[in-house]
UniProtKB/TrEMBL annotation:
It holds the Pfam family Phage_tail_2. This is Phage tail tube protein. InterPro entries: Phgtail_TP901_1.
Length: 154
């Protein structure tokens, strides 16, 4: 497929806890986004000891952390689903144990897809006097986030 621009990356969310795998119909598009970022990192432990090869440091990974962040222009149109997600984050319902838990699905033009449960750690609204109103979100993985690659064709 080649290169693509960020606006072609689709972000969807489902208001479910980490134990409830959403169906396709549960996902809603998070619309009017500008920036979308997903980062995967691993915690490591030092396994270096007196017999490590050639005095070289060795390590093992322990836990994976996937972080999502994004922002967009504020719209109150229901079709963009911004206010639905904001309400869930600011006042989480009993369905998710009063926790701001969501499933995110980030799909790239090639078909590459990140899917998994997240806990939203921050929601922000910015309303400058003489500029567009914007919002931003930050979330961390809250279970297994899976990267699915599109099938490779002949």
């Amino acid at each position: 497929m080649g290169a693509h621009v960020g606006r072609d990356v689709k972000v969807e969310f489902a208001l479910k806890d980490e134990a409830t795998v959403p169906q396709d119909a549960d996902y809603k598009i998070l619309g009017m986004m500008r920036a979308k970022s997903i980062n995967t990192s691993w915690d490591t432990v030092d396994t270096t000891a007196d017999k490590s090869p050639n005095f070289t440091k060795t390590s093992l990974v322990t836990f994976k952390n996937v972080e999502f962040s994004g922002d967009g222009v504020s719209y109150d149109d229901e079709v963009h689903n911004q206010e639905a997600l904001e309400a869930h984050v600011v006042s989480p319902p009993q369905d998710t144990g009063k926790q701001p838990k969501v499933w995110l699905r980030v799909t790239y033009p090639s078909g590459k897809k990140y899917t998994g449960p997240f806990i939203v750690s921050a929601w922000s609204n910015d309303s400058p006097y003489a500029n567009e109103a914007t919002w931003s979100i930050s979330a961390q993985s809250n279970g297994d986030v899976v990267l699915t690659l599109p099938p490779v064709g002949p």
